[in-house]
Amino acid sequence: MNLHFLNLPGFWLLVLAPLAAGLVWLARIRNRQIVRQWGTERHSNQYDRSATVRAYWWKGVMVTATVTAATLAIMRPSLPNATSEFPAGTADVVMLLDVSKSMAAQDCDGKTRLATARDVVKTSLLPSLNNNRVGLILYAGKPVPQVFLTPELENVYWLLDNEVKIASAPGEGSALGAAFSLAFRYFDVDSKADPKSGKKERDKIIVLLSDGGTDDSTKYEEIVAGCKKRSIKVLVCGLGQTTPARIPVAELPNEDKLLASSPFYKVDGQDATTSLDEQLLSQLAKACEGSYVHVNNAGDARFERLVSGVEMHTRISEQELFWYPTLACWVLMLASAIATRRGTKGTASNQVTAPLEGDV
After folding, report:
1. What is the pLDDT of residues 110-163, one digit of tens each?
2. Residues of the domain holding 46
3. Taking the model in full, what pTM does it have?
4. Domain check: are 187 and 271 in the same one?
5. How many CB atoms lie within 10 A of CB 19?
6. For residue 100, how far is the Cα from the chain centroid?
């Protein structure tokens, strides 16, 4: 872990830490002088007898820690963050995202398969595709085009956060063959090289995010032939576990929730279960000369590890961590404020008042 600071001159602000502690102790001395002069018992509502030496000692520690945390935040601690990216304008990527009901199973580190797929796209795939074109197709019983090939990645981020849900494509089951056919149309219509431009043809990539399963009409040889004909590289992310998992109704559309009689989705009166069809997905990736990865969380699908034979650049950026010491600063500031808070140890009626000089 190569932790470093982007604002090293801020280090000199640490000299304020002992100064702040000294001011706290000076306040303690001044408080004692006022108490001796005016009397603790007569004015117990103004000068808190619970503010002992120990309380001021803790206040000094808290104030020192507060200044230290604030200084660390100003120094901007950071970690280097390496991101592998396609060179601008070199890739067209179409993502096929399974939104069938089986993707509602919560067997990806406690999250649904669909939520994990969204995380993979947002944290691993899209950051690698700046200034390249991305398309998105959702499929269940039928495929639905969501985003045609576009460099405006903000549209994809927005749709993933707001529109991509279980059963957001029509029909039951998983029409894998129809989804690939629609992806082929994307490339045929909008990913052709212009001979007059003299530019290199873009790399064509299909990213499939699914738990497997397909309808009976899918012909794998047609998928493989279509990919080879267009020189498409296929990346397959298998989501879920190979052991059966139940489908929670809470993750399904409202019409399923209204008809549900138990917390889990039922078929013919029995709890429906689903498992990752890893064999189907891995064989499909192998037949298309692509890559397969089993995904439990977003970190399992690093794009640069899946792509082979494609030019990629590494971009070094900064992952700033200043908000951690900033949060600590506010917590410590609150703790220092209440360390010597004013209060009373009784009421005026049961406290002994000592006469002050000049009283009759």
Report:
1. 899 999 999 999 988 888 888 889 999 999 999 999 999 999 999 999 999 999
2. 4-76+322-350
3. 0.66
4. yes
5. 11
6. 23
